[in-house]
């Protein structure tokens, strides 16, 4: 019983992290039909900048995290303009290649600046320890992760369902041709979405540093993990990403608890089965 | 006869390299083996338009199969190559039945996943594969019972070069055949291929199997020449770097695969020995330069330059 | 019966019904035209016949045999072929290679790994005769993507003829062909073997009246009427709906 609870709480927390990091990737990939392998780099940047601000500048956790996320958002805009724009029109192969190149440069830049060692992010006092729920105790950090995840989901739901930007965004994902005919400025929408996705990835990277430790090779190490969430969820689907992140998060956690000797094999087999049955992903369009 | 010219050039380069770098034969052998791997990828990506990031699954299985065959059955190198090729082909055929139904991101992800599953399996079956310690104890018999593998790696190099020649020649013939033409047709328009009566799915499985055999042969060569197979044969990096080398050289014409591999590995060797992180900078910028400036790869460079000069006039 | 028989064919995309209880026969020697306004469902109908799309319900029979379960490739082998309304060629390959592929495929040679693809005597003869029929001999070694659109349409037609089908469906073969070349299309259609069953979809009424002996009118996915060209030309509903619109 206790084990199942642990699996569920840790799995849900891991799923929330996966969702925060991957959702922007899913939407941008659905929007521009661009394969982006460098997205994990934004999560790494968020974590690395927070680590740097806290350890070297002595800034507390919360302002460090906020500054790091803002910095990532600000950086992502020119990156999108300069590096990504030219590859939208290219095939999938050059996109894979270019974004692998971008990943390499991010890794090299971070290790040049901060070294190739682990970059711990010390938790503030309020997030340490555990909370007693009466029937059992939970690590406080997990609760924070879940709460932040829920806020992000709520925010995204509000953004896509209730705002003009969201309506345009959905139109652009579902019918790119029609949307631009209707005078919707798809390239502006993409810039904004890209920046938002990068910011969320940074948030996920910071919140998830306990589970996915930050170092220079982070974008390469977890590249497949994030892309799996996108592919299994279905390109461009926020709900799909959420379902995929939760399912994969819980499955992976369960496998780690129950069959630690099998490593990540369950994760990949699950992905093969799901994509074998539904090549377009859980909620993707055929 | 014109088609023999590149082969003559290849032979010349191989001979010059042999005499120019007598103490780097192990590295040169690795380059030649990687060329075979990248050729197998060109058959998929360049010729047929099947974008995959899972070549390591085929390569690694060839390596383990050849290694185990040498340890437990027979240490004959040529027989080992055939076993490695067969293993690669079998894995490609079986996984291809599922993989070749998919396209785009899904295909990329599934091919990555298949390689990861194999890596985990090899790790798990440590009683057979040696797990994380790797599969050791491989000592090869002389090639054709005559040429002993030597310490400096002369035999190993010449042997690998011969295999490269044979593989390249076979692939040239295949690409020029009706089968090869149908592969190029699939790259341009699978929908039209179906409309002229080609069973596209089966054809894709067939070429994936053939590429599996070639990648398996490359893996077998690697196992034989290093006398060791480690879990890293299944690394994502193997697949990703093979793709980078292919695009760097230029796709679809085999020669690009050879040139891309040679340039990439030479740059790697020099840069990585200086500083591993600078190496990542260099390869990152190299890759971006290829995508943005010479999308058709180094093999398209002469034409690109000719066009630029033409525009200046 | 021999030939193609379509019985009660229906197709819907979500809520949009694009084929409504369609019944059509196409016997050897037939020269039928399928006309109808834009979006009537003509191309969809061809895709249902050739197996690109799966019908919601209905039957497709060839020589009395139900072919509804056959794959696209199997239907081609059974003798059904069509041209695409939007040119669909092997763009980076030469015109000759574009013609070789269907010819090799028809003879079951594309599984061959050894011989060169341009050394099959019988195939090469047919390539050359198709090239000269469509006046493409000069540009045989050019990649198709370098051809003018009108010439690409000719390649499209030549490729389909190379399959030697028994049931031939032409989806707007003359659309985009400059008027100087369009007689080649009409000529090619009139020159087809007499026992071939032909269904041609066209907006160009001059071509329709030149080649068709019967005309089927499709509106909103359903057959409005079928008759001889004279009957169709005299039909007030058709005139209102279709001819009226295009003749102002
Ligand atoms: N894959 C699809 N999904 C949804 N709707 C489709 C699809 N293909 C076609 N349609 C719709 O079905 C209807 C019929 O299209 P179709 O192309 O068959 O018309 P058509 O008669 O060939 O027109 P035209 O004369 O312009 O070629 C159109 O409204 C079209 O938008
Ligand atoms: Mg149409």
Question: What keyword list fits this structure?
Answer:
heterotrimer, A: mainly alpha, two-stranded antiparallel sheet, 2 strands, 73% helix, globular, B: mainly alpha, binds magnesium ion
Number of strands of chain A: 2
* DSSP summary: helix tally of chain C: 9
Report the span from N to C terminus of chain C. Answer: 41 Å
**SSE order of chain A, one letter for each helix or strand:** HHHHEEHHHHHHHH
**Major interchain interface with per-chain residue totals:** A-B, 44 and 41 residues
* Widest sheet, order of strands of chain A: 1-2
Largest sheet of chain C: 6 strands, mixed
Shape of chain C: globular
What is the average of the pLDDT values of chain A?
A: 89
Any idea what the CATH architecture of the largest domain in chain C is? 3-Layer(aba) Sandwich
Number of domains of chain C: 2
Low-confidence stretches of chain C: none
**Helix/strand/pairing category of chain C:** alpha/beta
Strand content of chain C: 15-25%
What is the gyration radius of chain C calculated from CA atoms? 18 Å
Strand order, largest beta sheet of chain C: 6-7-8-3-9-10
Structural class of chain A: mainly alpha
C-alpha-based Rg of chain A, rounded: 19 Å
Characterization of the model:
The complex is a heterotrimer of chains A (286), B (313) and C (248). By secondary structure, chain A is an all-alpha fold. Chain A has one domain (2-218). Chain A is built from 12 helices and 2 strands, in the order H-H-H-H-E-E-H-H-H-H-H-H-H-H. Chain A has helices spanning 2-32, 40-55, 61-88, 92-114, 140-162, 164-174, 176-181, 186-207, 218-221, 223-233, 238-258, 265-277, and strands at 130-132, 137-139. A two-stranded antiparallel ribbon of chain A has the order 1-2. Chain B has one domain. Chain B has helices at 5-20, 25-48, 55-72, 77-99, 104-124, 126-129, 154-176, 178-188, 190-195, 200-226, 236-249, 255-274, 276-293, 301-312. The two termini of chain B are 35 Å apart. By secondary structure, chain C is of the alpha/beta class. Chain C has helices at residues 42-50, 72-78, 95-106, 121-133, 149-162, 182-190, 205-211, 229-234, 236-246, and strands at residues 4-13, 16-26, 31-35, 57-62, 65-66, 80-83, 167-171, 197-201, 214-219, 222-227. Chain C has a 6-stranded mixed β-sheet with strand order 6-7-8-3-9-10, sandwiched between helices. In chain C, strands 2-1-4-5 form a 4-stranded antiparallel β-sheet, with helices on one face. In chain C, helix 3 (95-106) packs across helix 4 and helix 3 runs parallel beside helix 5. The model of chain C has no long low-confidence stretch (mean pLDDT 90). The chains are: A mainly alpha (286), B mainly alpha (313), C alpha/beta (248). Chain A binds chain B through residues 29, 35, 83, 86-87, 90, 92-94, 96-98, 100-105, 107-109, 111-112, 116, 224, 227-228, 230-231, 235, 261-265, 268-269, 271-272, 275-276, 279-281, and chain B through 45, 51, 53, 98, 101-106, 108-110, 112-114, 116-117, 120-121, 123-124, 236, 240, 243-244, 247, 277-278, 280-281, 283-288, 290-292, 295. Bound molecules: adenosine-5'-triphosphate (ATP) and magnesium ion. Adenosine-5'-triphosphate binds next to strand 2 and helix 1 of chain C.
């Amino acid at each position: 019983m206790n084990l199942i609870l642990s699996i569920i709480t840790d799995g849900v927390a891991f799923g929330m992290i996966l969702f925060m990091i991957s959702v922007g990737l899913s939407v941008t990939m659905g929007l521009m039909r661009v394969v982006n392998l460098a997205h994990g780099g934004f999560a790494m940047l968020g974590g690395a900048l927070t680590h740097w601000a806290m350890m070297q500048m002595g800034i507390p956790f919360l302002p460090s995290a906020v500054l790091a996320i803002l910095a990532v958002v600000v950086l992502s805009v020119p990156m999108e303009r300069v590096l990504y724009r030219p590859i939208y029109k290219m095939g999938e192969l050059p996109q894979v290649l270019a974004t692998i190149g971008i990943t390499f440069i991010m890794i090299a830049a971070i290790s040049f600046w901060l070294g190739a060692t682990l970059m711990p992010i010390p938790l503030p006092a309020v997030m340490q320890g555990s909370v007693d729920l009466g029937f059992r105790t939970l690590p406080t950090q997990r609760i924070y992760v879940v709460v932040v995840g829920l806020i992000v989901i709520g925010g995204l739901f509000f953004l896509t369902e209730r705002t003009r930007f969201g309506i345009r965004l959905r139109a652009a994902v579902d019918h790119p041709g029609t949307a631009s005919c209707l005078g919707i400025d798809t390239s502006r929408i993409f810039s904004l979405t890209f920046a938002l996705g990068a910011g969320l990835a940074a948030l996920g990277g910071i919140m998830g540093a306990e589970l996915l430790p930050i170092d220079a090779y982070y974008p390469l190490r977890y590249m497949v993990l994030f892309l799996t969430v996108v592919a299994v969820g279905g390109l461009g689907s926020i709900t799909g990403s959420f379902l995929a992140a939760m399912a994969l998060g819980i499955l992976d956690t369960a496998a780690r608890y129950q069959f630690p000797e099998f490593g990540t094999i369950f994760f990949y087999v699950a992905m093969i089965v799901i994509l074998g049955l539904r090549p377009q992903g859980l909620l993707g369009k055929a | 006869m014109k088609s023999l010219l590149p082969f003559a050039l290849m032979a010349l380069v191989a001979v010059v390299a042999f005499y120019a770098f007598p103490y780097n034969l192990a590295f040169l052998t690795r380059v030649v083996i990687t060329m075979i791997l990248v050729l197998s990828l060109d058959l998929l990506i360049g010729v047929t338009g099947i974008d995959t990031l899972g070549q390591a699954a085929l390569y690694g299985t060839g390596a383990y199969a050849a290694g185990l065959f040498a340890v437990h059955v027979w240490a004959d190198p040529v027989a080992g190559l055939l076993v490695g090729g067969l293993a690669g082909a079998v894995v490609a055929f079986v996984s291809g039945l599922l993989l070749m139904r998919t396209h785009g991101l899904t295909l990329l992800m599934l091919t990555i996943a298949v390689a990861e599953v194999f890596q985990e399996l090899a790790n798990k079956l440590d009683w057979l594969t040696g797990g994380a310690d790797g599969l050791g104890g491989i000592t090869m018999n002389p090639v054709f019972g005559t040429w002993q593998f030597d310490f400096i790696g002369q035999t190993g190099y010449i042997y690998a070069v011969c295999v490269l020649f044979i593989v390249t020649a076979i692939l040239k013939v295949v690409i020029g055949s009706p089968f090869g033409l149908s592969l190029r047709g699939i790259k341009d328009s699978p929908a039209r291929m179906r409309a002229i009566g080609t069973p596209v799915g089966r054809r894709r499985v067939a070429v994936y199997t053939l590429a599996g055999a070639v990648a398996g042969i490359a893996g077998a060569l690697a196992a034989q020449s290093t006398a060791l197979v480690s879990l890293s044969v299944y690394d994502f990096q193997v697949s990703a770097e093979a793709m980078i080398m292919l695009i760097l050289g230029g796709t679809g014409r085999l020669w690009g695969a050879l040139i891309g591999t040679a340039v990439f590995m030479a740059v790697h060797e020099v840069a990585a020995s200086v500083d591993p992180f600078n190496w990542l900078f260099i390869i990152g910028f190299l890759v971006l330069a290829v995508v943005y400036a010479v999308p058709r790869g180094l093999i398209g460079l002469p034409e690109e330059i000719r066009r630029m000069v033409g525009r200046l006039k | 019966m021999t030939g193609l028989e379509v019985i009660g064919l229906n197709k819907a995309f979500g809520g949009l019904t694009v084929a409504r209880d369609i019944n059509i026969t196409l016997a050897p020697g037939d020269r039928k035209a399928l006309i109808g306004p834009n979006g009537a469902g003509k191309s969809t109908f061809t895709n249902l016949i050739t197996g690109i799309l799966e019908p919601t319900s209905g039957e497709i029979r060839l020589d009395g045999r139900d072919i509804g379960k056959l794959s696209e490739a199997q239907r081609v082998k059974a003798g059904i072929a069509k041209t695409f309304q939007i040119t669909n060629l092997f763009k980076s390959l030469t015109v000759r290679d574009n013609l070789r592929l269907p010819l090799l495929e028809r003879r079951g040679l594309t599984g061959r790994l050894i011989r060169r693809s341009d050394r099959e005597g019988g195939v090469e003869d047919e390539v050359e005769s198709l090239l000269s029929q469509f006046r493409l001999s000069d540009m045989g070694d050019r990649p198709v993507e370098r051809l003018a659109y009108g010439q690409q349409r000719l390649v499209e037609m030549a490729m389909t003829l190379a399959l030697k089908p028994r049931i031939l469906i032409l989806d707007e073969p003359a659309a985009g062909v400059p008027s100087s070349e369009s007689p080649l299309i009409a000529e090619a259609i009139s020159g087809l073997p007499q026992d071939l069953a032909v269904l041609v979809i066209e907006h160009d009424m001059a071509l329709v009246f030149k080649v068709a002996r019967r005309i089927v009118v499709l509106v909103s996915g359903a057959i409005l009427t079928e008759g001889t060209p004279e009957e169709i030309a005299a039909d007030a509903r058709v005139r209102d709906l279709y001819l009226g619109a295009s003749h102002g």
